[in-house]
Specification:
By secondary structure, the chain is of the alpha+beta class. The chain folds into two domains: 77 residues, Beta-grasp domain (Ubiquitin-like (UB roll), Roll), CATH 3.10.20.30; 75 residues, Orthogonal Bundle (DNA polymerase, domain 1), CATH 1.10.150.120. It contains seven helices and five strands, in the order ββαβββαααααα. The chain has a five-stranded mixed sheet with strand order 2-1-5-3-4, with helices on one face. The radius of gyration is 20 Å and the shape is elongated.
């Protein structure tokens, strides 16, 4: 009996952070694995491996993609941007500068995905307020809870210099919070 054939590999071409690559990958290889394990681009993080945390967010042709949920072969001929591709030499991307200015990271694990998601958000052009930024970034979790700083940093770049305020946070009645209790006490 002849030996079993090895796994099939597929030739793909990707531009990654401006560098062209010709690669051979198995059909089941997630884009995240290709970036981290095969190309040693470890800035993109593996968080939940289920597309729920956003730590693996990269840009494919400028659009936000969860790299843990997409196969590398699906992106043949595209341009992938990871956090390593944001800065130009020693010049940080404006989002990176804003994250530093607003202290929008603590442990830093979610930061690469947050930055790529924020750039995708900017490319989409839908954010018109701080509340929009918060909603459009809601697919990216931060276990340290730096959401307010992240939203301010993204708003600074996407909406212009602030300060930016949240209409939702300024409302007196917020369901299920102690704000309601205090408002009722003031009325009595």
């Amino acid at each position: 009996m002849p030996p079993a054939a090895g796994p099939s590999r597929h030739a793909i071409r990707l531009g990654i952070n401006g560098t062209p690559y010709e690669l051979q990958v198995e059909s089941w290889t997630p884009l995240l694995e290709l970036l981290r394990e095969h190309l040693d681009l470890t800035g993109t993080k593996k968080g939940c491996d289920h597309g729920q945390c956003g730590a693996c967010t990269v840009l494919v042709d400028g659009v936000r993609v969860l790299s843990c949920l997409t196969l590398a072969v699906m992106h043949d001929g595209t341009e992938v941007t990871t956090v390593e591709g944001l800065a130009r030499g020693d010049q940080l991307h404006p989002l990176q500068q804003a994250f530093m200015q607003h202290d929008a990271f603590q442990c830093g694990y979610c930061t690469p995905g947050q930055l790529c998601s924020a750039l995708g958000l900017a490319n989409e052009g839908h954010a018109k307020s701080l509340d929009d930024v918060r909603e459009l970034m809601s697919g990216n979790l931060c276990r340290c809870g730096a959401y307010a700083q992240i939203a301010q940093a993204v708003a600074q770049v996407v909406l212009g210099s602030g300060p930016h305020t949240s209409e939702v946070a300024q409302r007196r009645w917020i369901a299920g919070t102690t704000v309601n209790t205090r408002a009722r006490e003031e009325q009595a």
